[in-house]
Amino acid sequence: MNSHEVLKKSVSDLGVKSVAADLGLSTSLIYKWCQPNDSEDASGADNPLDRLARVYELTGDRGPIEWLCRRADGYFVENGPTLETDAIPLLHMTRRIVREFSELLDVLTASIENDGRIDEEEADRIRREWEKLKSSAESFVSTCEKGAYNQ
Fold first, then answer.
1. Residues 138, 100: one domain?
2. Domain range for 15
3. Burial of residue 53 (number of CB atoms within 10 Å: 0-12, 13-18, 19+)
4. Residue 72 lies in a domain
5. Measuring CA to CA, how many Å separate 1 from each of 39, 84, 99, 112, 126?
6. Is the pLDDT of residue 77 over 60?
7. What is the mean pLDDT of residues 98-105?
């Protein structure tokens, strides 16, 4: 889905006029954001999603994207690379995911056994282990979806 389609769908329930008024912008600008802007004859305008994507392309910094994910009560999870099945057989990949889950449990156990609480530093370690596990699992699922283990 293109950025203009995402915005068009997003503002459809509330309405362009309401969104424009709440943002202090003109309705014509909101309408332009919801139109294609990817060719010479397109009449749309770069929208906030296009601009955020461009900031990421220029800087390589996912900070703004991660911030936006947190604002939506979520987290950014990087998709791992699609794996070459010759390099990592199915059984090895599933063992890797189980091992990473075990590492997450080790961090949780150490945090709780220490003093019965999880402080900010321990929560950060738990978050890092969780992100690593999600990335590995996503890589595995993507590889499966591409039919790599269907041979």
1. yes
2. 3-65
3. middle
4. no
5. 16, 28, 36, 43, 33
6. yes
7. 93
What's the structural domain count of the chain? 2
Q: Is residue 75 part of a domain?
A: no
The string of pLDDT tens digits covering residues 38-69 is 766 667 788 999 999 999 999 999 999 999 99
Number of neighbours of residue 140 by Cβ within 10 angstroms = 21
59 and 11 belong to one structural domain: yes
Neighbours of 100 (CB within 10 A): 18
What's the predicted TM-score (pTM) here?
Answer: 0.62
Tell me the two tokens of residue 92: 């090895």
Site of tokens 């305008």: 45
Cβ atoms of residues 128 and 108 within 8 Å = no
- Same domain for 102 and 61: no
